């Protein structure tokens, strides 16, 4: 993901949503089902904002569960794809670094697949959480799933060597080589990914980064913004191993590579 001058992120996959779904398939809709399970267990109302909705898969799953869903993303190609392939929700363009859909417009905000971690600075994170609080009705929920910064304390298994991935899409084999490094000063996990395809095109390099948030740091900033943390754990979740399944309750540890949070907006 290359950062533009305005701080907004773009990648090869951002503008090619079909390729995104081919590279990161979720045929069982685990992410959307996990989010719905969180909403149901904590009694969330029907109005849901999926912030960073991408291709609309999770927004569509929440809609199928009976929610009134708004999917928001910065990528116009993603939104256009979502409207066609995952209809039902309303899809709108918005920036998670600061958005305004009106006061108390939603009963829940969902932010999956590390989208929250594109808030690289404290100011961006503050604006995101302030926007969430403004958008939520009193008692509304924030449900988020992301990488866990604590995993990188003393562990290097994700950093030691590049990771290769290969998949076929429309008869062409696509390959990516991904290298991760930790920028401790900025508290970022930086990614360099080189794409190549068997169609003879030139390799493409993209750069992106995620904020490394630690469990107690996240608990503190949520509390400071007027949220009560109901769950904060490393799994099971939609991207854990083994993955979440219906009936599995949240764990109590926060040590593995994913972090899951459910927080309730405090009442006035």
UniProtKB/TrEMBL annotation:
Domain Methyltransferase: 48-140
Assigned keywords, A-Z: Methyltransferase, S-adenosyl-L-methionine, Transferase
Pfam families reported for this sequence: Methyltransf_25
Domain of life: Bacteria
Keyword Oxidoreductase: no
Name of the featured protein: Methyltransferase domain-containing protein
Native species: Streptomyces prasinosporus
């Amino acid at each position: 993901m290359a950062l533009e001058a305005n701080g907004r992120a773009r990648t090869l996959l951002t503008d090619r949503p079909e390729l995104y779904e081919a590279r990161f398939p979720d045929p069982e809709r685990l992410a959307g089902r996990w989010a719905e399970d969180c909403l149901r267990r904590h009694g969330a109302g029907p109005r849901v904002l999926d912030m960073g909705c991408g291709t609309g898969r999770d927004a569509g799953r929440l809609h199928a569960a009976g929610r009134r869903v708004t999917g928001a993303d910065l990528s116009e190609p993603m939104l256009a794809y979502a409207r066609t392939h995952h209809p039902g929700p309303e899809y709108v363009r918005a920036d998670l670094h600061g958005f305004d859909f009106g006061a108390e417009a939603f009963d829940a905000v969902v932010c999956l697949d590390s989208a929250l971690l594109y808030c690289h600075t404290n100011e961006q994170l503050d604006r995101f959480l302030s926007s969430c609080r403004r958008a939520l009705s009193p008692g509304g929920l924030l449900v988020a799933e992301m990488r866990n910064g604590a995993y990188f304390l003393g562990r290097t298994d994700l950093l030691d060597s590049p990771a290769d991935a290969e998949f076929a899409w429309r008869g062409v084999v696509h390959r990516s080589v991904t290298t991760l490094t930790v920028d401790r000063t900025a508290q970022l996990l930086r990614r360099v990914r080189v794409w190549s395809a068997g169609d003879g095109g030139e390799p493409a390099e993209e750069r992106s980064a995620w904020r490394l948030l630690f469990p107690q740091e996240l608990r503190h900033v949520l509390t400071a913004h007027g949220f009560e943390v109901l769950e904060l754990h490393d799994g099971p979740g939609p991207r854990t191993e083994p993955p979440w399944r219906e009936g599995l309750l949240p764990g109590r540890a926060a040590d593995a590579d994913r972090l899951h949070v459910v927080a309730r907006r405090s009442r006035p």
